[in-house]
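TODO from last week: model Aspartate carbamoyltransferase.
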Amino acid sequence: MSILNGQVSLQNLVSMEWLTNEEVLGLITRGSDFKNNRATFTPQRQYFAANLFFESSTRTHKSFEVAEMKLGLDLVDFDAKTSSVNKGETLYDTVLTMSALGTDVCVIRHPDVDYYKELVESDSIRCAIVNGGDGSGQHPSQSLLDLMTIYEEFGYFEGLKIAICGDLTHSRVAKSNMEILKRLGATLYFTGPAEWYSSEFDVYGRHVAIDDVITELDVVMLLRVQHERHDGETSFSKEAYNSQFGLTQARYDLLKDNAIVMHPAPVNRDVEIDDHLVEAPKSRIVAQMTNGVFVRMAIIEAVLQGRA
């Protein structure tokens, strides 16, 4: 990994932990340049990208598609439901096939944590691997768009007070963001049910009641309750969760004037956040989705450069 002439060059992008602070800032700056028409990308040849999504996705999947098309890449169609996965083909063999066909970038979402390790360690797989989410592990492109959104608002990270709220142990967004935000100098708080908090978070911040910090926060980073990862072991009413842990109108009114509200979406309305607050003045949920396209353009450009 390196930065050349102000542009980040990567072999793969699979985890925020693999990026330096300089590379992180380089990617979000490049994303901002794409967004504000200060940067262009001219393909040196025909490039191909495949989006291999083995879990449901709207924002991440379609955001990568739009980013790839904006950069002039050709898309290799892939649908797990109609692929040889149904015949028992492994992820490794699927990616090996894509690589052999000449695909330059594979963006992958898969339920297995760390699925990418055997792919990036393989000498036979020549395409760049971009992690679109691995189980409850990492979600680097979401983290980068979150950082871009925060940086757009404040222009810095050092000293910002940020609460990551909700379904912590099941969230790859929380795990990607907590490490890099701590590294960039933010002060972190974790809120939500105690049973969804684990000691692994202690290194990065502390678990508090949302009402104890709400007036101090610069950023409220809400997380979706991930019912699909609970395996039926958790039962609660949406009203009770919203009242105790969610962003209600009363809590919203206590936020500082320049504080912002974020959520990776999809939003469980009236659970993590009151329905009418999703597009409230302090909300940046829609801005996050917009920024996702441009930071993913920066990611794709970086791995194409790294593989040039």
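Done. The first helix runs from residue 21 to 35.
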